Amino acid sequence: MLKGTKIEISEVLNINSVIEFILSLQQTSGDIPWHVGGKTDPWDLVETIMGLNTGKEFKASYRAFEWLRFIQNPEGSWYSSYINGVPEDRTCETHMAAYICVGLFHTWLLNTDTDFLESMWPVMKKAVDFAISLQTPGGEVYWAKSPEGVVDPMSLLAGSSSIYLSLKCALSICRILGKSKPAWETAFSKLGRSIRDNIHNYNVSKSRFSMYWFYPMLSGALTGEKAIHRLEKYWGRYVIEGQGARCVSDRPWVTIAETCELVLALNAMGDTKKAAIVFSWIQDRVYEDKTYWCGYTYPDMVIWPEDKLSWTNAVVLMAADALYKLTPAAGLFCHASWNGSIYLDMPK
């Protein structure tokens, strides 16, 4: 468990209660489903791993990584969801494959276990190669292959932004391990240019989701004035003041995960004060055991759904880490971190 936590953090949230809840969900296989009896998807599992890392629960994190190794498809993908290890949805999504890089780099930032990185290299390499195999000449990445193996020619802004962050982490891991992957560097540069300069190429039907709004900033694909402009232009569409971020712009449903990811994006952009204010809005949205709701409707304040989710609680820990510098991985999303040191040098 997390020791030596600052007193002001304990006044914000009970970190150990959240970690204990996540640990209680882990199966003997290493899998960590969304909730008791629930499904698992690879992207959210990596998010959950990073929550465990925040509490230095590396044994549990490594078991989850090993589960991902065991169920990885031969070409590097994972299926979109599993129940007790059995595929539920056999779609293979690019961002779900690539996101393991973020979890691995996050783990290394905390424990500098290079041997573990080396052991996971074959898994990560296949995952990245699968994701970028669906990249278009313009740089955006198609979102998925169907269960029949047919590529869906649609690019999602949130998904491609997630892949952008994943490639940053993958290339940083290459630097740590002394490996060279020019194809990954090219894919990263093309994807970044696509998000910065041709955002209109992405499927606008998904723009009702708040992730469409802030993921380009969360990932670091948009920085500086472009990031500030996008943040301010759409703030009123996706944020309910005093409550948090809507999951979708046309519904009065505030979700804890999206709110915490917005906190991460704000903090990444350097607006720590606003990030802390938004984080404070959700601190009483907890059950009696001090774990967090998934979401609630506003203004009637109906908790929905009532399931306690592993990855929602994990991203609360990640937001707390970013704000309060609990671990060496606190700067993972910060734009200023990604210049020099062990982080990838960002394009100017």
Radius of gyration: 19 Å
Query: What name is given to the CATH topology?
Result: Glycosyltransferase
Supply the CATH class: Mainly Alpha
Amino- and carboxy-terminal Cα gap: 40 Å
Mean pLDDT comes to 94
Number of domains as seen in the coordinates: 1
Order of strands across the main sheet? 3-4-5
Which sheet architecture does the biggest sheet show? 3 strands, antiparallel
Shape: globular
| Number of extended strands | 9
Instruction: Output the helix-strand order.
Output: HHHHEEEHHHEEHHHHEEEHHEH
Discrete helix count: 14
Low-confidence stretches: 1-7
Structural class: mainly alpha
Helix coverage percent: 40-55%
What is the CATH-assigned architecture?
Alpha/alpha barrel
* Strand residue percentage: 5-15%
